[in-house]
Amino acid sequence: MPHGAEPMKNLRFDPNPLWLSGLICLTFGGQSYPVHVLQGSFCLTIWKSNRCGYCQQLTPKYEEAASVLSSHDPPVILAKMDTTVPENAELARNYTHNGVPSIKIFRNGGKTVHDYKGTRETDGIISYLKKHAGPASLEIKSKEDAASLIDEKKIVVVGIFPELCLEKIKNFTALAEDLRVDYDFVHTLDAKFLPHGGPVDKPTIRLFKPFDELYADFEDFQVEAMQNFIEETSVPIMAILDDKPENQAFVNHFLHSPGDKVFLFLNFTTDLDLFKSKYYDLAASYKGKEANFLLGDAETGKRALEYFGLNTDQVPLIFVLAMDGTKYVERHVQPDSLAAWLKDFKDGKLKPYLKSQPIPEVNNEPVKVVVAETLEDMVFNSGKDVLLEFYRLGCKYCEEFAPVLDEIALSFENDAHVLIAKIDGTENDIPRERFEVQGFPTLYMISTAGSLSRFEGNRTKEAVIEFIQTNRGSPAPSNFAKSDLTVSEHAQTDSMKDEL
């Protein structure tokens, strides 16, 4: 469960919920929801509001799936909640980190929470939840069972138990329950039914995969050890990002793997033969050294490149996302220079890459523009108390707050010790160890005393100015008076009601 999430026993719903063919609409306004119902798979969709276009598209498909699954044995309960309802806000924050609609699967009375990873079509929702409502691991009793249950294009984890050991079986079952969203689990008494690998005489985990050595065995049944084995073994020596759907699962394992992540983006049409074998050999040489590798087609990975502030004109391009979040890049790289560049990265000889907008040539507006490359100088080393807004272009609430921020800046234009600034939080790298930005706009005060304070109040001119004066490190001018303020607090408060 995400950090700070409410336990399921605190879920509440309206005394007169709207039932839509088995769909429960939660609002958290009245009596407690009967937790014992959540013994099966409980799929919760987090909704923003009826104004959310994606939510509107999903609604009829979700409701149709709810109708079909309402009679499933065991029960599969589908529910939805509106994140715009004030009573839902705290819980919604825990489950909507990537926006709405957000779909979660709750098990065991809410003790276990998984992301829904199926399609958003009716048939896909139904088949996905039917699978996950059944046993976490299915038994193989014959070669025919193995042929039907072990998909050679997927990762399948097999528990082989030639001798019955209840503790190991219990641990394997618990692991299967916990990881069933990401992997297929099966179990058998005899390894002779399996497509690869020899016989075993003791409990063994055998992981099948459609790449590299095709299978791997493991004998430690401690839950954490099994989980580490599966995560490490499920990442190819070199993952491939292209337009083939079957490769996407292995790309996901790569993205969620521990260690440094190395990306090489190419034009597959013209450059693949030049780079592929050398890059694979390089990846193989780093196996077991906390580094994972991906070879990506530039056109397929165009959005990923743009996310990091890069583009397809710069390929062949090698990019590293280090364990600590630091990034490194080399554009127009040559096949023979890959190994030396990566060694320089490992030796700490490379300069980190920052995703940054260009530094403004003119920056004379009341609210100063900060970009990633000027953040240190303008915010942390300016010798001033800085109010910094993190905004996103096109954000409705950022647009509403913009004139308020301008007025705040004008209020401090004669105070040489205070700087009012803004930074685009999507187009510039933000140091996450310093700022927690989960939505826009977000305001921080960085004082000359070295403290960082996050603004949590109503975004009115008066409230923000009071926040600045309270948290500044330099003394406020004696001639700065509240009577100088001209914006109506009530008017600003009313403008924020839709958000709050």
TrEMBL record:
Major location category of this protein: endoplasmic reticulum
EC numbers for this chain: 5.3.4.1
Q: Which domain of life does the protein's organism represent? A: Eukaryota
Question: Which cellular compartments is it found in?
Answer: Endoplasmic reticulum lumen
Entry's Gene Ontology molecular function annotations = protein disulfide isomerase activity
Q: Read off the SUPFAM superfamilies from this record.
A: Thioredoxin-like
Give the matching InterPro entries: Prot_disulphide_isomerase, Thioredoxin-like_sf, Thioredoxin_domain
Q: Which reaction does it catalyse?
A: Catalyzes the rearrangement of -S-S- bonds in proteins
* GO cellular component terms, A-Z: endoplasmic reticulum lumen
User: Which keywords does the record carry?
Assistant: Disulfide bond, Endoplasmic reticulum, Isomerase, Redox-active center, Repeat, Signal
The entry sums up its family as follows: Belongs to the protein disulfide isomerase family.
PANTHER family annotated for this entry?
PROTEIN DISULFIDE ISOMERASE, PROTEIN DISULFIDE-ISOMERASE
This protein is called protein disulfide-isomerase
Give the classification, highest ranks: Eukaryota, Viridiplantae, Streptophyta, Embryophyta, Tracheophyta
